[in-house]
From TrEMBL:
PROSITE patterns the UniProt entry points to: GNAT
Signal peptide: none
PANTHER family: N-ACETYLTRANSFERASE EIS
Matching InterPro entries: Acetyltransf_17, Acetyltransferase_Eis, Acyl_CoA_acyltransferase, Eis_dom, GNAT_dom, SCP2_sterol-bd_dom_sf
Native organism: Kribbella pratensis
Lineage top rank: taxon: Bacteria
Pfam families found in the cross-reference section: Acetyltransf_17, Acetyltransf_9, SCP2_2
Protein's UniProt name: Acetyltransferase
N-acetyltransferase domain residues: 1-141
Amino acid sequence: MVEVTEEHLDSVWQVRTRSFGMGGDRDEWNKTARSFIVDGRYLGVLDGDELVAAARVWPYEQWWGGRRVPMGGVAGVVVAPEYRGRGVGSLLMRAVLNLCVEKGYPLTALYPATTVLYRHLGYEFAGSRQLYTFEAADLRTLGGRRTAVRKAGRDDADLFLELAAKAHEARRSNGPLIWPRAEVESWLEDESLFAYVAEDGFVVYKWSDGNLAVEELIAGSEETARALWATVGSGASIAKTVEACCPPFDPIHLMVEHEAHRKSWQNRWMLRLVDAPAAFAGRGFPDGVVLEADLRIDDPELPANTGDWRLSVGNGSATLTPAEPSGDALRLGPRGLAALYAGTPLATLRGAGLVSGGAALDAGFDAVFGGPAPYMLDDF
Ligand SMILES: CC(C)(COP(=O)(O)OP(=O)(O)OC[C@H]1O[C@@H](n2cnc3c(N)ncnc32)[C@H](O)[C@@H]1OP(=O)(O)O)[C@@H](O)C(=O)NCCC(=O)NCCS
C-alpha cells in the first residue's frame, strides 16, 4: 500500500479510464487529484513498480441530528481489470478505513457501485440522493412576491454557509454535506450558475438541456421557499421542467401541484462508523428523549469499536462508554451499527438479521435515532 504521488497520476488515470470509461478533462482531474496527494488522502496498491489500484478520501463534514460530524468520503475506488477478484479491492479498502482512523474521521461514507465489497468491510445503506422533477409553470405561481430576492455574489459565501447551517440545525438534518467555503465561492463566481438570496434563504440553479436544474435551495420560512422556487419557475416560458435534488420531506412537495414525471430517481449511499464513541458524541439527538442501553459491538475490521458499551442519551446528546457485559445488550456488527446510527427502524434491522438481543428497548432506539430521513445533495 502506498500514498499516491505525482508520478503515479498517469497510472491512476489509466486504471480509472479502464474502470469508469473516459472521464472528462484530464487537467481538471489532475488538479483535483493533487488536492488529495498533498495531505495523503490518495492511496494506491503497487505490484512491483506498477500502480494497480487506487482510492481517495474527501475530508467532509456531514450533518447528523443537526450537528456537524467529520466524515471521510471515499471515492474513485478502482482496481485494474487484470487484478480484480483477487482481494486487491478489499486490501485497498482496509487501508482506506485505517486512513480514516488516522485522520480522525468518526464516520466514512460512499456511493457504492457494488455493495458486496463494502458490506464485507462494514458499510451499510444509510441514505440517498434523490432527484425530483417539477413543472416550471407550477413553480412560477407559488407566490412569495412580498419577499425581497436579490442576485448573490462572491461576497455572499459566508451568508450562504450561515443560512444553510441555520436550516440544518433547525431541521435536525441527517446526511447532507457541509461545503468548504472555497466551493461556495466557486459557485458564486461560476457564470453558468445563477444564485439568488433572500433574508433567510438562497437558491442556486442552472440550465440543463433546455430545462432548469436546482443545485440547492435553502429556505427558512414558507414565504421565502415560495419566493425562491417562483424565481426559478419564472423561466417557465422557456423551460418546461425544473429538476431538483432535494430531501423527500422538503416543504416543496407539500406546496407544488404536480411532480412532472411522477417519479423520482435515487442513488443510495452507505455509511460506516470508524470511531463509535466519537460518532455518537458528535451527532445530535432529539431533545427530551432519554435512553440508557447496553450495546455489544463486534467489529472485526476496526477492533477499537469491539466491546461492551453503555449508550446514554439525554439532553440532545449521547455518550458511548465501556461497560460490563450484559445479557440484555443489543448485539450488532458494523453494518447494523451504521444502519442504526442512520435511523433504520429496529424492526428492519432485526428483519435483515443485522441486530439481535436487547428487544425490550426497540421503541427507545427508534425514538432516539428516528428523525428526518438521511439524504445528500452532492455526489462524490
Ligand atoms: C469494484 C472493484 C473495486 C472490486 O475490486 P476487487 O479487487 O475485484 O475486489 P475483491 O477481490 O477484494 O472483492 C471483494 C468482494 O467483493 C466482491 N465483488 C467485487 N466486485 C464485484 C462486483 N462487480 N459485483 C459483485 N461483487 C463483487 C467479490 O466477489 C468479493 O466478495 P467475496 O469475497 O464474497 O467473493 C473492482 O471490480 C473495480 O475496480 N471495478 C470497476 C470500478 C468500480 O466499480 N469501482 C467501485 C466504485 S464504488
